[in-house]
Design brief:
Layout lengths: L10 H15 L11 H8 L3 H13 L3 E4 L3 E4 L9 H7 L2 H22 L2 H19 L3 H18 L3 H11 L3 H7 L4 H5 L1 H12 L3 H13 L1
Antiparallel strand pairs: 1-2
Amino acid sequence: MMNTPIHKKSLADEVANEIKAYIRSGHYVAGQRLPTEPELMKQYGVGRSSIREAVRMLANSGLLRVQQGLGTFINEFVEDSETLHQRLNRAAAKDIDEVRQLLEVKIAQNAARNRTQRHLDDIEGFLNERIQASQQGRIEECIQADINFHVSIARASGNEILTDMYDAFSSRLKSWFLQIHPDTTSFIQTNDLHQSLFLSIKEGNEELALRYAREILKH
């Protein structure tokens, strides 16, 4: 294999692209072990950190599979890009929830500006389900109502892309929430905040919606 030193700014990106090209061309085949870090450093003329970052990016995209103690292996190459749902299926629940939380504040603010009466009816309905389920100790129903409450706020935001993203992230969280919430105590503690968030959206108060969304995330 020819040495192909790289002298560009984004070294990790360049290395990742070179490795991807080898996979596409068949020089690397599914199941084959990727050369070691020292070998890749020599081949591409870059440092260890650039190699590791390139491998991380390709592993995240599904082209590589890192097995601790064994090495890095080539996955079967598929030309089409991985869908968001496929990527989420490989992601850790805590990472998904972190991204979901980043979206929530903007969603609440937009919902206060763009909500319709139909949106408000949906949000209030799920809020009431959340409150009732939490007070009755029905944890699974409570979690589902909580997810539905926030998804309905996303739909009220008026941004379809934001809504689809939030829905995709939230759909993966129920099983994880069941693991980290043994009972409905934390949901009972935040019922008032969720009620306040709904009222701020209903009143069209973006500043208050932003504030209560942030308060909820603290919990």
